[in-house]
Amino acid sequence: MEHKYVRSIFLGYVLIIFIGAIILSLPICHIGQLKFIDALFTAASATSVTGLIVTSTSENFTFLGEFIILGLIQIGGIGYMSLVIIFFIFIRQKLNIDEKRAMKQSMDLPNLHVGGFAKRILFFVLFIEFIGAIILTIQFLDKYEFSKALWFGIFHSISAFNNAGFSLFTDGLSGYKSDTITLITICFLIILGGLGYFVLIEIYENRKFSKRFTIHTRIMIYGTIILILAGMVLFLSIEWNNPKTFGELSFYDKILNAFFLSVNFRTAGFNSIDLSSLKDSSLFFSTLFMMTGAGQGSTAGGMKITTVAILIITVVYILKQSNQEPSIFKRRIEQKVINKALAIIISSSFFVLFAVLILVETQNFPFIKILFEVVSAFGTVGVSTGNGDILSLSQQFDTFGKSIIIILMIAGRLGVFAFGLILVGKAKTKHFKYPVGKIII
Questions:
Q1: Which range (40-49, 261-270, 296-305) has the least confidence?
Q2: Which of 281, 230, 266, 298 has its CA nearest to residue 379?
């Protein structure tokens, strides 16, 4: 991982967030008063495709403000480096090696063939968002006139595919908790965005030959299915009789909303029920799903499914005292990949626990709610126990508390490994090795 490319990507995101905050602060973009820290928080949440809000998107921003937020979501979801590369390709400019390496770093690509990959990304993004917008627009026509339904359809399709979780409804998607088509459409947009561009392209190109899928793609497909089903079972078992969440719903609606909740708790911030009414056990276990996240090179955050899968496989092999190296699908896992997975999980846990410690001591809120908010920000998920209204718990934080959440959202979007590299720097190359030390564990 090249330090200079990571630093450039980080500074690029920070610059986009500040520019977005300045634009959102303009009188033509918002209604009433808007503090700069709230504009900065909104821009950071949109660019990092998180979805935590400290001011109502529909009530406190004009159409132009909503459009700017949607633009930041699209930039953050695709990745600004990808958009720059696509722009250069369309004006027929050849990419130099530094630009290719920056694109590879930004999108976690396996090679430097970035031109064709960038074009396919653009095609898949626009096609999937277009289909989603059509379906959602048709659904919203029942309650809204065509122009508003169309805008709502476009906004929610882009927000869902990019795993952002921003909504133009004042009650989130609570009004659609019995609408199967709307909730399922949102869910599949989230899942497709969370799988990652590399996986989507590979599935399309090898759709008739599933045996050609790479190990990465197989882990992502199986991991996504397992996590969604596990989340459904967990939330149904805990919340089945809770009158404030699933208790008053029909059997079918319980299954539907458990599916919707499970999908959103890993990657996106939409909600069809009042999350503040969830039991503490649901809130706690949901943090594990949020920390896991979705796929590498996707629109979602978190430690990534592949990272967690690699460590689980390694732990199983160690506990079994196997004489074989860790493997999956008859393929050996390299030691450097295992080391990186371990570093990501330990670093992520440290960032989260350190942020929780700071916020618990500086903000007067229960531990479980702060833990939930911190993990949601770091995993760029966007769900929140709320402020008693439609806004996130962060709305009640002071400027310092909101700043901590902003840093977590940026770190989550950039990736903990890349963010950690920025903080600690890259080690100098050494041309010697120390003797082995005997340590008892």
A1: 296-305
A2: 266
